Amino acid sequence: MPYLEETHIRIHHAESIPFLVDKEVSAGRLFTAISSSKSLYLAIDLPDMVFLTGTIFHIPFETLNYLKYRSCEDNREGSWLLKFLHCTPNLKKLTLVKVKRMTLTPDQVPLCLLCSIEEIKITFYMTKIAEQLRVASYLLKHGLHLQKFIVNLPVEQTDQSRVIEELLCLGRGSDKCQLSIV
């Protein structure tokens, strides 16, 4: 299969589209078609991601070097995102935008965090700061090859100095990791 350089996918509510009878099969076909991408921008606008399960997590994204994941709804991406990272063993760069929660499993850390990710950028937003700090802590702790960890804090953040202080105190799995707060 030829490699795709860059893929942009936006999955949104498709209940009104009659030909999508089996959403899981359709999602499996889509993810199989893009599994050779080197760079993937994935935006999900769904309140319920239950159909993004099953076969998707058996599709290897071995050539994926960069993933930008954007969550647009308060969906159940928590466990989905971590499971998807298990399919990306060679991921070098990860950008997370509007990720409101992530189900973290210390006993099942994605291989890409332990072996290949060199840069993570995470955009915080004004709510659920404690949850976002928990995600940042997990990524920093398990990112054994991290060189850069960039946190984008909103300007309006009232507790910005407290959040910065907490970020600076988080443990890191890589001695080479530099934390940048913008």
Automatic annotation (TrEMBL):
Organism superkingdom: Eukaryota
Domain FBD: 111-182
Pfam family for this entry, one: FBD
UniProt-listed InterPro entries: FBD, FBL13/AtMIF1-like
Protein name: FBD domain-containing protein
Organism listed in the record: Hibiscus sabdariffa
